[in-house]
Amino acid sequence: MPGPESDLDLLNAAVREAGKIALRFFGGQYRRWTKDGGSPVTEADLAVDTFLKDTLRSARPGYGWLSEESLDDPARLQARRVFVVDPIDGTVAFMKGRPHFTICAAVVEDGRPTAGVVFNPAADENFTAETGRGAFLNGVPIKAGKRAEIAGCRLLGNKQAFDGWPPMHIENFSSIAYRVALVAAGRFDAMVSLTTKRDWDMAAADIVLSEAGGQLVGPDGALLTYNGPLALQGATIASGPGLTGPLLAELAAKNSLKTRPDSP
Question: Rounded to two decimals, what is the model's pTM?
């Protein structure tokens, strides 16, 4: 059972400290290499992963563990509560010295996140949420936007994927969790990703968006579930509730909902 501090308090303190570790590497010299499948990893990813695993699991030894940089332990499938962690989401941005990477940690219970933190240490932006208590950016409540029309919206995604769409302002960042969190904060109206993702990319940002009044859904319009055997997610849409339907309809009309292979 959880200790005296809440899961969110535990995640928040650990992720904040992990941010200090990441910043010690950011912009400096460190080892880097390519994993099987082509995605990059750095010495910083592993240092943050080790710190979070030691800190979180020592506080909650009964919780399972799922992280991008840890060997997968099938025992997590029998755990009701699981830590789902991405030590550095947006490693490409981190390696290029761009302040658009995040450290992500969530607690998932029975397939859905109940607490989550998405922290951009380079920009000192800390997005937090837990079930039923709202979403916050650096302690200030945030809400997703109410826009219901695609034309003119501010969207995060790959510009090449939106040829032939109504005119939009489109930007993109390496960290998908950061993209979802920016939608939760109302800075952007929506995020669309047509590449495969993993649970650790999405879980923490998912609860931030849902507690901010938005939705993160798959191509069928259903909420995502986490801690499955493959920990794999397909195409995803993040938006305020008014844009979910129009985006799904536009993607279906363009035959764009087929998930594409993940790119490094």
Answer: 0.94
